[in-house]
Amino acid sequence: MHKTCLEDTVAAHIIEFKERYYRLAYSYVKNSEDAMDIVQESIYKAFSSLDSLENPSYIKTWFYRIVVNTSVDILRKRKREILSNETFLSSIDEGEYDSYENFDLKTALDGLPENYRTIIILRYFEDLKLQEIADVLNENVNTVKTRLYAGLKKLRIAMDEKNEEVLI
């Protein structure tokens, strides 16, 4: 595919699914400004590495992978900043947090380890198939299945504990 045509195809795809990519980024950073930064950085990375997209029919998984990797990079960078300078911690401005109602499911989902949370979000909130998730995360599909079911089990346990607390 000609580079200009590929650029147009990628741009159209990103515009069409921008809300999904924003939601995915937001699920990592819990902050609208950081999520927008992740999407913007992901778009820059995508256009900088168009040659890595070998087959245009894989734009969806290719761009999801870029967003996931960019989100993880931002979180790692943030952790290093916090760990490297504890006294600076109180003066860090992480932007204005979006206001949302605190649902038990969201709280339980946020409590899951990142590798389980990512798979659950991609499967149930972004409606990706298991093979697509495996492609995005560069994992074996059986690993994805195992983590999905283990994550759902942990999520169910966390939800049951929340429900027990309400009943007490």
UniProtKB/TrEMBL annotation:
Keywords: Sigma factor, Transcription, Transcription regulation. GO terms for biological process: DNA-templated transcription initiation. Pfam families: Sigma70_r2, Sigma70_r4_2. Residues 18-80 form the RNA polymerase sigma-70 region domain. CDD domains: Sigma70_r4 (cd06171). GO terms for molecular function: DNA binding; sigma factor activity. Residues 105-155 form the RNA polymerase sigma factor 70 region 4 type domain. InterPro entries: RNA_pol_sigma-70-like, RNA_pol_sigma-70_dom, RNA_pol_sigma70_r2, RNA_pol_sigma70_r4_t2, RNA_pol_sigma_r2, RNA_pol_sigma_r3/r4-like, WH-like_DNA-bd_sf. NCBIfam families: sigma70-ECF (TIGR02937). Belongs to the sigma-70 factor family. ECF subfamily. This is RNA polymerase sigma-70 factor, ECF subfamily. It comes from Tepidanaerobacter syntrophicus.
